[in-house]
Design brief:
This protein has helices spanning 18-26, 47-55, 74-86, and strands at 2-8, 34-38, 61-64, 90-93, 106-107, 116-117. By secondary structure, it is an alpha/beta fold.
Amino acid sequence: MLVGYMRVSKANGSQTTDPQRDALIQAGVDEEQLYQDRASGKKDDRPGLAACLKSLRDGDTLVVWKLDRLGRSLHHLVNTVHDLTARGAGMKVLTGQGPRLTRPLRPASSSLGSSPRWPSSNGS
């Protein structure tokens, strides 16, 4: 199942999630599977994101409009992706530079600073 998350930084109504919502729906996310927050990406307290992540099950895919909608902290993004892959969930970023994870990554080596090894298209 596709599960979408959208966020705008300002809660005062000066920003809208409409472009994100439209893109997520066009990508195949059912409106009932959309979660949102109106808060800075730097804030840890984002109930929409917490509910979204909690709803994901093995085989589901989290879909975001842009990677920065999940947060602006690299630490938070890495932890989120780690949690997704550990639970067997994937992730798809609709715009910008971002990987599409369809299954958990496997480490290339155990040395610090090594790059992750992306699954090959032949399933190995």
